[in-house]
Each structure stands twice: as C-alpha cells, then as structure tokens.
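WARN no homologs supplied; continuing
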Amino acid sequence: MISQKWQKQIRLLQQKKHRQELGAFLVEGGKSVLELLKADFTIQALFLTDTFYKENQKLLDEQPFSFELVEESELEKVGTLQSNNAALAIAKTKENRPLRVEGSEFALILDDIRDPGNLGTIIRIADWYGIKKVICSETCVDVYNPKVISATMGSFTRVQTYYVSLQSFLEQEQTKAIYGTFLGGESIYDLTFADSGYIVIGNEANGIRPENEKFVSKKITIPRFGEAESLNAGIATAIVLDNWRRGVKP
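OK structure emitted
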C-alpha cells in the first residue's frame, strides 16, 4: 500500500511549484517507467503492480533501489492517468544546463509552447528524427509536467531540454543558421538546410513572437493546399523535421 507520505508527495508533484521546490517529478505508465529505469535519472520511489513486476522481473531485480508492489487501483487513485496497470515512479529533476548545437547538429527551439500534449509530442518527434536538444522559452510549459512526460512516451530520457530567455539566446547564436516557421516563407520542399543550426517552432496560436522573429535568418513555411487555417505545433514539427532529415547525409 502507498503510504500517506508518498501519496501526499505524488499529489504535490502534480503542481509545478512543488516540483521545483522538491526537485522531483512523476513518471507514470509501463512504457515511460521502463525507459526511466534504463536512463540516468535518480529514482526516489517506485510503485509497481504484480503483473508489471513479473513481466520485467530481471530488469527490476537489477536496480540498486527497492520498490513496492501495489494494486492497480492505488496507482489510479493517486496518479494523473485514468488507467495505469503498471507502474509509477518519483524521480529527481535534472539541472537546467545550457545547450547549444555542436558540429553538424541541429536543435529545436520552442517559442511559447503552452500545451503539455504538444510539448510532449514534439519531444517524442525530436527523438524519432534524431534531435537530441530542445531549447525552450521560459514561457513554455514545464517539461516535468506529468502530461508532458506521458506524451513523450519515454523520449524525455533521450532528449535534453534547456529553458532560457530566447531573445538573449538567439542573439548569441547569430553565427548559426536559424530557421523559423511562418505562414509566409520559403517552401520547405524547395529548401536545402545548412549543415547545422536551429529550427524555431512558434506558439500554437500566435507563432514566433516578434522579439524573436528578428533573429531568424531563414523563414520557412509548410505549403498549404487546402483550407485549414493552421497546423498543430507537433504536426508542423514532424513535417519540418522529416524534410530536414531527407537532406541529411547518412
């Protein structure tokens, strides 16, 4: 049974201010917890159903910490998922360390992405296309939000994030190619990307903010052939990265 102490902490960690105070976050669901166990995060507590333990006994028995077997109903009662028949972990957050592109590398820059599902999906898409670094404006949703973590499906363990004032960051990175997504710009289907640089994705409703737009060296667009007004930020990211990846030498 999950103790009152841990139940209280699990509920506190559903709020950003408490995640920051405690330096910890929640990871829920079998897929995400398995990815966490294989990564370099420090795990403070782990609660498992008997079924999940039996399915992953070898990996779990190799861990240097103890875990507790609980009922599925307990995980659903204290966690954020409507259905969780596997596991819930509490892990330490990582330090917000500076990230920049190095060598022949591309990174994503996210300007004011507010929706947790969008951020989680973008991190998962970045992982799929081999992007290891995501730079977030200070107004982006917290990467350790439980909905973000769940939406990444474990990709949060492989993609690094860095929260920073984009205006000052972009000002320092002017020697790099900086591509930004706009409704008006060069078609991504006609574009040849540089060997390294950044791709900026803007807010779901308002796009890239004017104070950051001025640092974009190349405005790009996904051509529209129908009548839809706009694209979801996650979908736009996937389309842009797919076209970028097509031009990358193997």
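The first strand starts at residue 24 and ends at 28.
OK
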